[in-house]
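#struct-help
A.M.: can someone run this one for me? Single chain, 344 residues.
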Amino acid sequence: MNTLDYIVKLTNTPSPTGFTSGIMQYVKEEVEGFGYTALKTPKGGVMVTVPGENDTEHRMVTAHLDTLGAIVRAIKPSGRLKMDLVGGFGYPSIEGENCFIHVAKNGKTYTGTILMHQTSVHVYRDASTAERNQTNMEIRLDEKVTSEAETRALGIEVGDFISFDPRTVVTESGFIKSRHLDDKVSAAILLHLLKRYKEEGVTLPYTTHFYFSNNEEIGYGANSSIPAPVVEYLAVDMGAMGDDQQTDEYTVSICVKDGSGPYHYELRQHLVALAEEKGIPYKLDIYPYYGSDASAAMRAGADVRHALLGAGIESSHSYERTHLDSVDATEKMVDAYLLSDMIE
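D.P.: on it. Structure tokens below:
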């Protein structure tokens, strides 16, 4: 499989934070199929250690596989579901979205649609103006249910996870449209690099730990299980696009600062120098309302040089989009970094 194949596979695998065991098992088995040893961390991440020429100082590179989602908050008298959100996004971004309810009691999956209670303009005068919030939004199940008892008879209970239909589309013009490109684009890149390194017999200059994390969307991601020899930590995530942003869908975005503060200046400049040397198109940017696996590690007290880069993602935490050009630039940037010398 190539990187695009992995993007399509991963985006179509449900994995809201807290409900990630399936996708983590897939990644573990995939990298073991390449010939690596993959270890599950106690909180559910997957660590793949690739021995390098230098085993004294190590690197760590991360991508997260958990996504935005929801959880059943209550079953309404009508049989419809109330939600509680998982991750940092707003109710307006999921209005009209098809979804899946993953039932813990019996392992079944039901489908539904996320709608306003006051959806019909023929009935509700405030259909367009009512606030999109937990009180007004609900899930209409694709089952013949009209009461709380009928919904409970399906096995659905408070605490069942809800994932969103990714609607992954790859256009002839090279755009990838999907939910959860944050951060499954990056995870696909790391998977493809691991596959290529094994097939081509590449030996990295430094022992490198590839950490697929599963709690980033709720703030603590890959902030633990960091091996003691690690001195450089690269989070591969997404570049945020919008007003005053330089990031676009055709280059790799290198973050200089996010909501946690500036990233390590010398390591950032090392990435810039590599991009210029290799002719990799890049943008420097600030993501004002953002955190990463690397920033979570710093808050947890990791004594490492930390950096952040990723593909440019349009409409982050909604129905996202990027271009194959940005994916390619990001993969080349990560590859160039992993094959480079460490900074002094």
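A.M.: thanks! DSSP finds seven helices and 18 strands in the chain.
D.P.: also worth noting: The helical segments are 3-11, 21-34, 148-153, 181-200, 265-278, 293-299, 324-338.
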